[in-house]
Amino acid sequence: MIIKVNKVKVITKKVMDEYQEVNAVKKDKKPITITTNAVERIRYLLDQKQHDNFKKSEKAIGIRVLIKQKGCSGLKYDIEYAYDTRPLESVIEERCSNGQKVKVLIDPKSIMFILGSEIDYVEKKFSSGFIFKNPNEKGKCGCGESFHV
To answer: Partners of 51 in the beta sheet?
Structure first.
């Protein structure tokens, strides 16, 4: 009987240790990833915004990623300058090549739609922009502006 109790304690401790390891990994994991190209472009845009508004007291602290209800498929990615941190927002900080930090804030209502996504910045011959690679997308509309999950 004592042996069984010890075995249960050992098994329970092992399970608890594994549970704590998994949770530690989850805490360190970011809700979305941001490529180096995207981080560099965000930093450039924030610097330009600061330069354009140098007389104003408002300073953008980063960018905010939102999902809005729009378009043929129902949902659309939106990016705007963030001037403050709102309650319950997820904040991701990345460093760009010059060492400066870039903050990406994710709207709490939007997080469930973009969890696990990657934000990239792509420059092509005739267009450039931020691209979302979202594993939750089930489809896009014909023009590619909106998506559904």
So the answer is: none
Indicate the SS3 state at residue 15: helix
143 in a domain, yes or no? yes
Which H or E element spans position 42?
A: helix 36-52
Residues 30, 131, 63: CA angle, nearest 5 degrees: 60
CA torsion through residues 80, 107, 56, 43, sign: negative
> Does 21 fall in a domain?
no
Q: CA-to-CA distance for 105 and 24, rounded, in angstroms?
A: 22
Summary count for the chain: helices (H), strands (E): 3, 9
Express each pLDDT in 100-112 by its tens digit. Answer: 899 999 999 988 8
pTM of the entire structure?
0.72
Identify whether 19 is part of a domain: no
Q: Find the domain containing 122 and state its range.
A: 34-148
5: in domain? no
Structural contact between residues 112 and 44, judged by C-beta atoms closer than 8 angstroms: no
